[in-house]
Amino acid sequence: QVQLVESGGGWVQAGGSLRLSCAASRSIPSFVVVGWYRQAPGKQREVVATISNGGRTTVVDSVKGRFTVSRDNAKNTVSLQMNSLMPEDTAVYYCNAQTPWDSYWGQGTQVTVSS
């Protein structure tokens, strides 16, 4: 069973930065893609950023230029660097890892941005 553990969430004022980490119980490149998702109160979960096993990254338009996804294969972690945070970035952030057969989720970490 794959385990994903997120960390790094917290409270920050608008304009601040946070760095989220997702620690996996196995090699990151063994997944087809690892992504960060978020879910704000009353809203659907949405993808924020992804990184493929080939290292290709994508970010959603609303965070482009502010968020960066990266990985550390030696530490089996995928990180999400979040800069210039805005109140609308407030959400629970989840890590997701996919294989051709399964999809795994972490427990989530809360990010709160105050204005």
Task: Please describe the structure with a list of short key phrases separated by commas or semicolons.
single chain; 115 residues; mainly beta; seven-stranded mixed β-sheet
Can you describe this structure?
With 115 residues, this protein is mainly β. The chain has no helices and eleven strands. It has strands at 4-7, 10-13, 18-24, 33-39, 46-52, 57-59, 67-72, 77-82, 91-98, 103-105, 109-114. Strands 2, 4, 5, 6, 9, 10 and 11 form a seven-stranded mixed sheet that branches. A hairpin with a 4-residue loop joins strand 7 (67-72) and strand 8.
Short account of what is shown:
This protein is mainly β and 115 residues long. The chain has strands at residues 4-7, 10-13, 18-24, 33-39, 46-52, 57-59, 67-72, 77-82, 91-98, 103-105, 109-114.
Q: How do the helices and strands line up, and which of them pair or pack?
A:
Layout: E1 4-7, E2 10-13, E3 18-24, E4 33-39, E5 46-52, E6 57-59, E7 67-72, E8 77-82, E9 91-98, E10 103-105, E11 109-114
Number of helices: 0
* Tally of DSSP β-strands: 11
Portion of residues in beta strands equals: over 45%
Overall shape: globular
Average of pLDDT: 97
**Structural classification:** mainly beta
- Helix content range: under 10%
Largest sheet: 7 strands, mixed
Encode the helix/strand succession as letters. EEEEEEEEEEE
